[in-house]
Design brief:
The complex is a heterotrimer of chains A (486), B (480) and C (96).
Chain A: E1 6-17, E2 54-55, H1 56-68, E3 76-77, E4 80-83, E5 93-96, E6 106-111, E7 117-129, E8 133-136, E9 148-152, E10 159-165, H2 172-189, E11 201-211, E12 220-225, H3 228-247, E13 255-260, E14 265-268, E15 278-280, E16 287-288, H4 291-298, H5 305-316, H6 320-328, H7 330-341, H8 346-364, H9 375-386, H10 392-405, H11 409-415, H12 425-438, H13 440-447, H14 455-467, H15 474-484
Helix pairs in contact in A: 1-2, 2-3, 5-6, 6-8, 7-8, 7-9, 9-10, 10-11, 12-14, 12-15, 14-15
Chain B: H1 8-16, H2 22-40, E1 43-46, H3 48-56, E2 67-71, H4 98-105, E3 109-114, H5 148-155, E4 161-166, H6 172-178, E5 181-184, E6 204-209, H7 212-222, E7 252-256, H8 266-281, E8 285-289, H9 292-313, H10 332-343, H11 346-359, H12 361-388, E9 391-395, H13 411-416, H14 422-426, E10 431-439, E11 442-449, H15 455-469
Chain C: H1 5-14, H2 21-38, E1 62-63, H3 73-78, E2 83-84, E3 87-91
Antiparallel strand pairs in C: 2-3
Classes of the chains: A alpha+beta (486), B alpha/beta (480), C alpha+beta (96).
Chain lengths: 486, 480, 96
């Protein structure tokens, strides 16, 4: 009997906080770091009589995010009321576009286990409002076991995009690549900064298993993942758990499970499933988006990161890994491209950006937008090294000096006492002469043929290089010394 | 003549000419209220002192110094607003309803918040956590609802005008029962911001007054674009100033064919005949329109939608952020259940459960979605009818105000009585409830309906009819 | 199809309402009467009918993304009996 195999069938729901100054349906600030319950008003507190009024920018951010996922924009979309009772939900319903969303379907490309590109279809993206945030009294800050909870409504009404995938994801690794690529694309679009540490991206996964014997497990919704790592671990855990049940002949029950990050397990919810029903939000007329508006927004869409990385590979001969690395941060890639545009060799420029620029950024906790060396200046430095006017070591010295003193290449070279083009010809002869004069014993040993392994010769070369402050070319030094000791 | 007896128009003219002072008007109205309120019970909250302090503020608006009352589902900053429900407790809103802001800016002063059916659900004003209001024309009878307090206050001479709200007839029916004029404006003409929602796509704020001219004055203040209400009209201006030489000559006024078979109270039957004669005398042409879907399905459609929207509007009352609450619940679910079970009255609970039931996934398509489609048919039927006529004339209610406590146990029968008013809300139309005269001691009102945004024209037609019927008298039954 | 009182009770609980037996009887009767009336929709052919929206095709107006803080957040907090410090304190959410 052949061994049973299992294929995971996974769909992912992502909530991303869209970037805007004010909330989706009111004029309160979206700053959720403000003191608790200070960015609140009758609308986002759901006070009786208040009515929502939609933020123009949030609509555009939704369009941008949708376009970043290759989604079309629907000319007419609607808002609905999604009902459930929870203390962080002030109106007892969430205003959401769940049933007629702003976008049509789209896709994101990821690599499958064989390394081939595959499409994860995006069912749609829709706009909705976020709920307030809860803080729990239990010692570990978790919901379970907490006797009381504290509600802060600052987050209530901040704008969200919910992105629902088709069940096309087949592994935890694919899931991670899907959300990573998606996040990068959304950031590129300008729709959101998606700062993970601020909880601006949250995940739910629908996991079920298909067995080679034809059995299908029921769909389990796993909630409460707030990081890529948590998503990966939760899916892996759930795959293992469901496999085990199915292997033992058991039935996976359809349920909602919560990911417990500290314990690394999913647990079934004791709560009866929230009953959700939708009615059309009567306080918001349909949202109409003209083709002209779509075109205007589309014109603002930058080249997407994966497309950009492909171009770096095919047109600039960057290694795939370097191209992926640089395009991960749009601003870093912009910096790199400016550098290339200013005349730097792309491969060399990429290397400089990846090593030196990044090192200093990390050391000084700088964002690339605020980096002290402009891409044009860096291009100049890269070129001088490439042309041999500066050695690599000198180039790095100049770079560091420029970073520390906020100056240009010429000034750094001058202040470092570097002679461009290096020490050669008579200047080099002078140095060699004085080195030999200072080391008569060594010279004699070499002349007597005792330096069989060339160690003494190397020693002299080192001294000369040191004297020239590294500005001599090692090859020239070696030749000149060899001549001098003959 | 006492100052409280003056119409809004005469009051504003007199104040402008300094024939009397705002303080004198205030005192006269206050005295009138004091003398009747024990019997009428129109108020939930009296705000005499607030009105007095508002009088001190400098204001030269067209309503400067005019006392008014608001239905208690309109938010008033710092002043208790209850929607006649226990669940709101002593809630003092941190903001004003836009309509009240407009009145206040024009100089109106607030005498109080008046009674209504809880969350505007009802047509007697008896379904209030604060007890029933009595009809000032006959204390044993209901004033109608849900804006019964507003209608009673104007009818009894407390104030020259009041605001109410109309979701399925809640302005027009009590106006008819109390013998005053009431306008349910076109949906979108008056901002709903700050109106505690019942059925959001049906709710509309409107005025009560004792003359049509007075309605025009109030409308000129509250028909105001408001960015806070997304369903509010934009880029439109309405002229409510025409009152001289208005005519309906050559206009068509229709009766609804399908309504002819329904039974009406003889008083209303007679008023219909009399009004038709007036219209003909004024040169209007009487025609007939057919509204088959309206006559058969509007009641079901209306209640399906009103309840579906209402149950979501009422989900916010959970005791966390405002109003009535309990502090000793062991869990959040228990807290929600105890707050809501105690806080809502029986009619509201029934409608919440019905609304929840209709919108559940397995029934949603069959009931809620079907109702939204029936509504389209109803609106289309009216659109077509208004290609054949300028106005439609019909009762505001098939019956005269019933005795308090005489309501049928079967709520559905009560709902059927709303057939004459609620189609207007379904189609978002304006409807004027106008006074036609008395039958015995009781006033009889009827209703004139027009196409969307025809509010000024309806009021002008109302002025023409008013010339024949005269204005209603102030009801005196409440006087101690 | 008639709803049983158990079904109505489930709906009530979903709406966070606890009904007395008398209330439940009333509500069950009320809803079943109501559903009977609504069943009349079946007489209409609604297949090609769009759900209602206002004739003028009212568009959702859009607000500029501008922060305008509500001036009196204290007044909002003041209305709740559950305010503890600057938070709203609520009892146990997760049931055992």
């Amino acid at each position: 009997m052949s061994e049973l195999t299992f294929t995971p069938v996974i769909g992912i729901e992502i909530h991303i906080r869209l970037k805007s100054d004010s909330k989706i349906f009111c004029s309160c600030s979206t700053n959720t770091d403000a003191p608790a319950n200070t960015n609140i008003c009758p609308v986002c507190m759901g006070l009786p009589g208040s009515l929502p009024h939609l933020n123009h920018r949030v609509v555009e951010q939704g369009m941008l995010a949708g376009m970043a996922l290759n989604c079309g924009i629907r000319p007419k979309s609607l808002f609905f009321r999604k009902s459930y009772f929870y203390p962080d939900l002030p109106k007892g319903h969430q205003i959401s576009q769940c049933d007629l969303p702003i976008t049509t379907s789209g896709y994101i490309e990821v690599h499958d286990s064989e390394g081939n590109l595959k499409k994860i279809r995006v069912h749609h993206l829709h706009l909705e409002e976020d709920v307030g945030s809860l803080h729990h009294s239990a010692s570990d800050g978790r919901l379970e076991g907490a006797d009381t909870s504290y509600v802060d409504y600052n987050r209530s009404g901040t704008p969200l995009a919910e992105i629902v995938s088709e069940p096309d994801v087949a592994s935890a690794a694919e899931a991670v690549e899907y959300v990573t690529t998606l996040r990068r694309r959304v950031i590129y679009s300008g729709a959101s900064d998606v700062e993970l540490e601020k909880g601006m991206m949250r995940f739910d996964a629908n996991v079920s298993m298909k067995c080679s014997d034809g059995r299908w497990g029921r769909k389990v919704e796993v909630k409460n993942m707030n990081s890529f790592k948590a998503l990966e671990r939760a899916i892996e855990y759930e795959i293992k758990r469901q496999k085990k049940i199915m292997l033992s002949g058991g039935e996976v029950i359809q349920e909602t499970r919560h990911w417990n990050d500290s314990k690394g397990v999913t647990t079934g919810s004791r709560l009866k499933e929230f009953y959700r029903k939708f009615i059309v939000e009567p306080d918001l007329p349909p949202l109409y988006i003209s083709q002209e508006w779509v075109n205007r927004v589309r014109a603002r869409m930058p080249e997407m990161p994966d497309v950009r990385a492909n171009r770096y590979v095919s047109e600039m001969n960057l290694p795939r890994e370097v191209a992926d690395f640089i395009t991960d941060d749009k601003n870093l890639a912009d910096y790199f491209e400016s550098c290339v545009k200013a005349g730097a060799n792309p491969v060399r420029a990429a290397h400089w950006v990846r090593t030196e620029v990044l090192r200093v950024m990390n050391e000084k906790q700088l964002k690339i937008q605020n980096f002290m060396i402009t891409p044009e200046v860096l291009a100049g430095l890269v070129n001088r090294v490439d042309e041999g006017k500066l050695s690599t070591t000198q180039g790095k010295e100049v770079f560091d000096y420029m970073c520390a003193n906020n100056c240009g290449v010429d000034e750094a070279v001058k202040n470092l006492g570097i002679t461009e083009g290096g020490v050669a010809g008579s200047a080099l002869d002078e140095i060699i002469k004085s080195v030999l004069a200072a080391n008569p014993d060594v010279l004699n040993e070499i002349k007597s043929g005792l330096d069989k392994k060339g160690k003494k010769l190397k020693f002299l070369q080192g001294l000369v290089m040191k004297e020239s402050k590294g500005q001599a070319k090692p090859q020239e030094v070696a030749e000149a010394i060899a001549n001098a000791v003959k | 003549m006492e100052l409280y007896e003056l119409s809004l128009y005469h009051l504003t003219e007199g104040l402008k000419a300094k024939k009397f002072s705002p303080e004198e008007v205030y005192e006269s109205c206050k005295k009138r209220i004091d003398s009747c309120e024990e019997n009428i019970h129109a108020f939930i909250t009296r705000t005499d002192e607030i009105a007095k302090s508002q009088l001190q503020e400098d204001n030269s608006g067209i309503l400067a110094g005019v006392p008014t009352v608001l239905k208690d589902n309109l938010c008033t900053k710092g002043i208790r607003t209850t929607a006649a429900s226990k669940i709101l407790g002593n809630w003092r809103p941190p903001y004003n309803a836009s309509a009240w802001n407009y009145l206040r800016s024009a100089g109106a002063v607030l005498m109080g918040k008046v009674n209504m059916d809880e969350f505007a659900m009802g047509n007697t004003c008896g379904n209030s956590a604060f007890g029933a209001t009595h009809n000032p024309n006959d204390l044993s009878r209901v004033p109608g609802g849900s804006s019964g307090g507003s209608a009673a206050a104007v009818s009894a001479g407390y104030v020259p005008f009041a605001l109410g709200s109309d979701t399925g007839g809640s302005i027009r029916q009590p106006a008819a029962y109390c013998g005053v004029y009431g306008l349910k404006p076109t949906y979108g003409m008056v901002s709903r911001y700050g109106l505690i929602s019942y059925g959001s796509s049906l709710d509309q704020i409107g005025p009560f007054a004792r003359t049509v001219r007075d309605l025009q004055i109030v409308m000129s203040v509250i028909a105001h674009y408001d960015p806070m209400d997304s369903s509010c009209f934009r880029e439109k201006n309405y002229d409510f100033t025409h009152h001289e030489n208005v005519s309906i000559k050559g206009k068509k006024v229709a009766l609804v064919k399908e309504f002819q078979d329904f039974t009406l109270d003889p008083a209303i039957e007679r008023a219909m005949k009399k009004t038709q004669e007036i219209l003909q005398e004024e040169g209007a042409e009487l025609v007939e329109v057919s509204l088959p879907v309206v006559s058969k399905y509007a009641v079901a459609c209306y209640y399906a939608l009103a309840m579906s929207e209402a149950h979501t509007n009422l989900e916010r009352y959970d005791g966390v952020r405002l109003g009535y609450t309990v502090k000793d619940a062991a869990g959040i679910k228990e807290m929600f259940e105890r707050v809501r079970s105690y806080g809502f009255g029986p009619e509201v609970k029934s409608r919440i459960i019905a609304g929840t039931c209709l919108t559940e996934p397995e029934r949603c398509e069959q009931y809620y979605v079907a109702a939204t489609k029936v509504r389209t048919l109803i609106a289309q039927e009216f659109t077509k009818a208004f290609t054949q006529t300028d106005f439609i004339l019909q009762p505001a209610s098939p019956e005269m105000p019933p005795l308090i406590g005489s309501q049928d146990d079967d709520a559905m029968k009560g709902y059927q009585a709303d057939l004459y008013t609620l189609p207007v809300n379904l189609a978002g139309l304006p409807g004027l409830s106008f006074f036609t005269g008395y039958y015995g001691d009781l006033p009889v009102g009827l209703q004139l309906i027009g196409p969307r945004w025809s509010d000024p024209a309806i009021l002008e037609a109302g002025l023409v009819i008013e010339r024949h019927t005269g204005t209603p008298e102030i009801a005196n039954e409440g006087v101690k | 199809m008639k709803l049983t009182s158990e079904q109505v009770n489930d709906i009530a609980i979903e709406s966070r309402l606890l009904l007395t037996e008398q209330e439940l009887d009333g509500a069950t009767r009320y809803i079943n009467n109501f559903l009977d009336i609504l069943d009349s929709f079946k007489e209409l052919d609604l297949t090609d009918v769009e759900p209602f929206s206002f004739a003028e095709a009212l568009e959702c107006p859009l607000r500029e993304d501008k922060v305008c803080a509500f001036p009196d957040t204290e007044a909002i907090l003041h209305e709740s009996e559950h305010v503890d410090g600057s938070y709203f304190k609520v009892p146990r959410i997760m049931e055992e």
